[in-house]
Specification:
The chain is α/β, with parallel strands linked by helices and 201 residues long. The chain has helices at residues 15-25, 29-35, 40-51, 68-75, 88-96, 133-141, 154-157, 160-171, and strands spanning 59-62, 81-85, 102-105, 118-121, 147-153, 175-186, 191-200. The protein has a 7-stranded mixed sheet, sandwiched between helices. It is globular.
């Protein structure tokens, strides 16, 4: 019987456990997400395309997985995309799509590169994936005027710390919220997400 990874995807785990889970899930990930109507990549790509003035600027797809978000960004007109992910098996599938300029296995102890004016974290931050502190790390890595598109699914939104992490940046003027919209994430699972676009001050 095929393992249902969606049943355990939102459980808390450390980076090593997350890497192992996504390595194991990599073979069926796209089929599983497709069956459930995974909508957040296209929503994030459309939101970033609406606010990015130059789609040829380098875009970092943080937590790129098998490249579903990367493909959505290509479809939205972005032309220079690099990806990083914890899972080597996910990276291998993303590489096969031939849409990324560079792909690297993510080192959680290394700083996020600071040469990307556009960063995406699609379905990456929150329970079962990257910790909420990742949001601040990504914003710190952006240059002034850079854009971050990211999503919080319903599981992340249920944690009040999610909004608190974002508001720490917005309330002091260190970043400006350009876009926030709640909508479909995994419709077949009854899960929605909010997509955000934030500009670094």
């Amino acid at each position: 019987m095929t393992k249902n990874f969606l049943e355990t995807a939102y459980a808390e785990r450390d980076a090593s456990e997350t890497q192992n889970m996504y390595n194991e899930w990599s073979a069926s990930y796209e089929a599983d997400m497709g069956r459930n109507g995974y909508a957040t990549p296209a929503r994030c790509a459309a939101a970033l395309a609406e606010h990015a003035t130059d789609k040829s600027l380098p875009l970092l797809d943080f937590g790129c997985g098998t490249g579903l978000a990367g493909q959505a960004f290509v479809d939205a007109g972005f032309t220079v995309i690099d990806g990083v992910d914890l899972s080597p098996d996910m990276i291998a599938q993303a590489d096969a799509k031939q849409i990324y300029r560079n792909l690297q296995i993510l080192d959680v102890d290394a700083p996020i590169p600071q040469d990307y004016p556009l960063i995406a974290a699609v379905g990456v931050i929150g329970a079962g994936a990257a910790p909420l502190s990742t949001l601040s790390s990504l914003l710190h890595a952006l240059p002034s005027g850079g854009l971050l598109v990211f999503s919080f699914n319903d599981h992340a939104l249920a944690d009040p710390r999610s909004a608190a992490h974002l508001n720490e940046w917005l309330d002091c003027g260190a970043a400006r919220l350009l876009f926030a919209q709640h909508g479909a994430h995994l419709p077949a699972q009854g899960i929605e997400s909010t997509v955000y676009v934030v500009e670094k001050a």
